[in-house]
Amino acid sequence: MKLTDNVLRSFRVAKVFRENSDKINCFDFSSNGETIISSSDDDSLVLYDCQEGKPKRTLYSKKYGVDLIRYTHAANTVVYSSNKIDDTIRYLSLHDNKYIRYFPGHNKRVTALSMSPVDDTFISGSLDKTIRLWDLRSPNCQGLMHLQGKPVCSFDPEGLIFAAGVNSEMVKLYDLRSFDKGPFATFKLQYDRTCEWTGLKFSNDGKLILVSTNGGALRLLDAFKGAVMHSFGGYNNSKAVTLEASFTPDSQFIMIGSEDGKIHVWNAEGGMKVAVLDGKHTGPVTCLQFNPKFMTFSSACSNMAFWLPTIDD
């Protein structure tokens, strides 16, 4: 089944889970699309089975809290950033709920966490104005970049380069093998003082970069030339909430939630809005991702919603 405008418009909430007593901070699908793990301000990690559509188990990080979370390539392991005590990143085995390793280094909140799509490398960005490069096999930071402002960062789908959004006005591209030589490309965007950049993602085909903000607009860039192809707006975000924006796996559509619980969808190429979906969320939709393998997506406020199409185009 192919994603089209009509299929996207037909998506409806199939299931809502109320496992959390506070807002969900982040979630991540496993690469096979079979499970999803969420982190919440209630200090819990909830693991869901996407095929059966139900929560499987709940783990807690009472001492450190849990903020950003990402699956690694090994089954049943995650890395996550903390929001209590310190800003150390933790590598956790879900199988036995034991820490495999700690990654100390950041001394302010971690605002970006991206796992390499090809190996055990990951990068993190922090309010301490650094990006750190890590290897899951070592607690020592493998690389450190000092920046002029708060960074957001992400790997490209090949795992060869990463992009850093700095100071909410520049995107810098680095070659992973020689990042210490500085960026090989820098794109300067028009600065918008009404909002800060909160996220940066590549499309799966590697051709586009999506910059999300805590304001009412997203920007879509050409990943090679740095030109702004589209700005997307018309969704509610008056309280400067960090709303997650995502590409669909085919790189054809862009989605974001809003503070009124609705999901807005645009066509990436033409820039036209194709759908506004009502998620019946009770608060701002802070997390939103399409499943990498199946025709479903998830959105979260303090509740988690699983969506399915109601037509097959």
Strand arrangement across the biggest beta sheet: 1-28-27-26
Compute the average pLDDT.
Answer: 92
Counted beta strands: 28
Spatial shape:
globular
Distance between the termini: 7 Å
Computed over alpha carbons, the radius of gyration is 18 Å
Which structural class fits the helix and strand makeup? mainly beta
**Helical content, roughly?**
under 10%
- Give a short account of the largest sheet: 4 strands, antiparallel
Uncertain segments of ≥5 residues (pLDDT<50)? none
Q: What's the total helix number?
A: 1
The succession of helices and strands, N to C, reads HEEEEEEEEEEEEEEEEEEEEEEEEEEEE
How much of the sequence lies in strands comes to: over 45%
